[in-house]
Description:
Layout: H1 2-19, E1 22-36, E2 39-54, E3 57-68, E4 76-88, E5 92-108, E6 113-130, E7 138-148, E8 160-173
Antiparallel strand pairs: 1-2, 1-8, 2-3, 3-4, 4-5, 5-6, 6-7, 7-8
Amino acid sequence: MRVLCILVATLALLVAAEARASPTVTTGIGVSAFQAGVMPSLAITPHAGVSVVRDGWTLGLRDSLMLMPTTVGGVGVNNSLALSAGYAWPSITATLGATFSQYAMTACSPVLCGRVVGLAPGVDATVDWFSHLLAGALGVRAAASVGWYGGASVVLPGGLAVMVTAGPIVRIGGR
Length: 175
């Protein structure tokens, strides 16, 4: 998954150079609320991404690694790659995109808990706000995602997982 992320980021930068678009790298760490089954979790979520902006329109790729300590079954991990498009104003960027996640975590139904491992498609919405401090390099990200996890799992009969993340972000390059 990391190799795919690097390849797509390289391709995005090449396209940006050809189109005279403005490449931007973002990184940060957030606190996430994660719900799969009936057991909610809090998580620490470092993330990094690359995007290109041209005439306000943005195309981006972001990788997020959600680390979920639990009281049942150890630490859960959810690595999510998002490909998104949206619009960037001088201090706000809003995007909507598709996600692909690889996960290994403990999830619980009302009567059963178990370890679930797999791949999941999903959707993602993100809003970044950048202050004027340090020439607009510091900001805050808020993101929400819904993923289809578990397949035919008895632990996750509905197969949905919901994630909400917020935290500081640093922008390098771009505007």
